[in-house]
UniProtKB/TrEMBL annotation:
One of its GO terms (cellular component) is cytosol. This is Putative F420-dependent enzyme. Residues 5-126 form the Pyridoxamine 5'-phosphate oxidase N-terminal domain. It comes from the Bacteria. PANTHER family: HEME OXYGENASE HI_0854-RELATED. The keyword Oxidoreductase applies. Keywords: Oxidoreductase. InterPro entries: F420-binding_dom_put (IPR019920), F420H2_bilvrd_red/Heme_oxyg (IPR052019), Pyridox_Oxase_N (IPR011576), Split_barrel_FMN-bd (IPR012349). The keyword Protein biosynthesis does not apply.
Length: 132
């Protein structure tokens, strides 16, 4: 497992939007914008069961996550790794992310018909640039 340095961890801890890339069954990439956070050296994000990210990761756990500092286009973190899906803490994590990104205590877009799922990414490779 690769290790995040302090600056990379700090950038990932800020409410900066990230893009996540998973692999479709045909091997082509699928990228979406997500909310992320760090938990130790792992990056976490949240989705719902049945969505493309969750379906792709069940078939192939390889994933990449990128964050670009909106104040400095040369300050970035890009992580490639392996994803694990966890249901147990998913509701708490989406609320934590809603607090970080929206400043609210509870995720306001929760739908009663969906099951949230947390994605925990173990970094295998980290590209980090501290900016200008």
């Amino acid at each position: 497992m690769a290790t995040l340095n302090e600056d990379a961890r700090n950038l990932l801890s800020r409410p900066v939007y990230a893009w996540v890339t998973t692999l479709r069954p045909d091997g082509s990439p699928h990228s979406t914008v997500v909310w992320v956070d760090v938990d130790g050296d792992e990056i976490i994000f949240n989705t719902a069961v049945g969505r493309a990210k969750e379906r792709h990761l069940r078939k192939d756990p390889r994933v990449s996550i990128g964050v670009l500092d909106p104040e400095d286009a040369y300050h970035l973190v890009s992580v490639s790794g392996t994803a694990r899906l966890e249901i147990d803490s998913a509701d708490a994590v989406i609320d934590r992310l809603a607090k970080k990104y929206l400043g609210v205590d509870s995720y306001p877009f929760r739908r009663p018909d969906e099951q949230r799922i947390m994605v925990r990414v173990e970094p295998r490779q980290i590209i980090h640039n501290t900016g200008r």
